[in-house]
Amino acid sequence: DYIVIQNQSLVSTIYPNYPEILSRLNKIANNGRIGVYTLAKNKKQTLPEVLGFDEKKPIIENIITFETDYDHKVWEHVVISDKHAYEGKFSGITKSDMEFGLTFRKQNVKELTTNHRTLIISAYFLVDKPLKHCELVVSVEEEDKNIYYEVYNLQDLIKQTGKWYEKTIFLDLPKVKSHNNKIGVFIWNIKRSELYYDNFKVTIY
């Protein structure tokens, strides 16, 4: 028997609520929108592999490690600290007097007009004191109007102080009509906490 699943449903609904689904799927084919699978038992694989991303070239792939120079055209509010580091000697920091922390912003992404796209955000986070209210925000604008907005409360992720937490987020982005568009991924430090992060990567397929 074959199982047919829309990529959008797998990313936005099924996987977040049932991550164990990855071990039960054996991919037969995936055309970028729909996947065909058979049942598997305890198969070790990642969500990008199940979606066929391991066979595709991303339209955007950008990482900031805080160890070397970075793309100043897309990364904003970059503040570097040597107090903590997941790898190397440095990490990024959102200080307690900053409303907005690290920001990734890309304009005029023509590929957003051709199809639904999948956004993958991966990073490591650490705090010295418990977060009060700090969010990771994803937004898509078209003709200067916001058409997509997703929020993740980082205080729900970071349970302990002094410990690095890895977070990977998969989001299905809407197809837009205009090349006058903008995608943003940013830290919104609403209650002015202090937050460290490292190896912050944004990928879009």
Task: Kindly describe this structure.
- This protein is mainly β and about 200 residues long.
- The protein is built from three helices and 14 strands.
- The strands form three sheets. Strands 4, 6, 7, 9, 12 and 14 form a six-stranded antiparallel beta sheet that branches. Strands 5-8-13-10-11 form a five-stranded antiparallel beta sheet.
- A hairpin with a 2-residue loop joins strand 10 (about 135-140) and strand 11.
- The longest helix has 11 residues, at about 5-15.
- The radius of gyration is 18 Å and the shape is globular.
Give a short summary of the structure.
By secondary structure, this protein is mainly beta. It has helices spanning 7-17, 47-50, 154-157, and strands at 3-6, 25-30, 34-39, 60-64, 75-76, 80-81, 91-94, 100-107, 117-126, 135-142, 145-153, 165-173, 181-188, 195-204.
List keywords for this structure.
mainly beta; five-stranded antiparallel sheet; six-stranded antiparallel sheet; 3 helices; 9% helix; 205 residues
Q: End-to-end distance, in Å? A: 29 Å
> Beta-strand percentage?
35-45%
- Mean pLDDT score: 94
Main beta-sheet strand count, sense and barrel state: 6 strands, antiparallel
Total of helices:
3
